[in-house]
Amino acid sequence: MKIEVYSPTIRRKEMDAVLTAMVEDQIGPGERSRLLIQTAREHIRFDYALALRSPATALYLALKALEVQDGDGVLVSALSPRYYAQVFADLRLTPLYCDVSFSFPCISRETIEKAITAKPAGTQPRCIVLHHTLGFVPDIASITGLGIPVIEDISQSYCPPPAEPDKNAAPAEGQENAENRPVHGVFTILGLEERDMLTSGGGALLFAMNRKDGSLLRGYSNIPPEYCLPDINAALAAVQFREAARNMERRREIAQAYTQASLRTKHKRFVSLDGIEYNNYAFPLVLETGMKDVSAYARKKEIIVESAFEQSLAGAGISDSVLCPASYSLSLRTVLFPLYPRLPSPDAQRVSRLIMTLP
What we know:
Blueprint lengths: L11 H11 L8 H13 L4 E5 L2 H11 L7 E5 L5 H8 L3 E5 L10 H9 L7 E7 L8 H5 L5 E4 L33 E5 L12 E5 L2 H8 L12 H32 L20 E4 L4 H10 L5 E2 L17 H9 E4 L7 H12 L3
Parallel strand pairs: 2-3, 2-4, 4-5, 5-6
Antiparallel strand pairs: 1-7, 6-7, 8-10, 9-10
């Protein structure tokens, strides 16, 4: 039986929540969206959040809240999602593409500074949109040290809080969330799309950690309901928050087996920054051989693999390959293997054997 590269983790609890929402009088934005925000706040100690229909809407509103102007520069990784380009175009902003390193798929202070040096004359960098690519967490403290406002996108890097958090040990305002991870951005986007770490089948939370930044988002509290997350999606997302720790543990088990298998190949893995545990959103390998050879070999084993960055700015040919050579190279050579909580153990073993014998 064919093993797909991705499958949403929808179990009975999620289905029951959605069915309950469907039989209620209101399935559009309403009480369940408010309950989702309340649930999310128990896990991520933000000050204020909006539940929106898409990450694109969240990014648009975050940039508007920062009062960016026509022609302003936005620093962004070349491996960010391709929808970013459309949002920038809608706001008539100038994207300033930042490269990554070959061993780590997120931008750094160094690559941002290089992008600023190479910016068009007269373009003022007004903000950084910091995508946590493939679930890897960049050095946020170093990046915010540049003094440029940051919008973080943790759609792939969300990690559930400890099983028994100390409720009396509240984080310093705007500095840490319940995951014990630094959150330094003015605003944070948590996408809830099909392939995000948590899913509602579509949507996003846009939140601010402290009261000062939260006041900027409160200005959008009365946006039309067509911009807001429907209750039917919110019901699914709320269960995903509650099941996140269970799902992450299963990801960790599968990833450990894959990692051991990859040690017997010539292909390379990305390495997390010191002190930050990877959430195993995916299992990427940077290939030493061609993507076509590996894909063909996997198909023979009835296992689907795919390009990790096909839907990125670099993979879509939107960013400048000359200015971002590492991103361009990685977009051609990085492959993802099936890794999701519902993957049966026998299938995970088949994938491990595939990784171990890659050409």
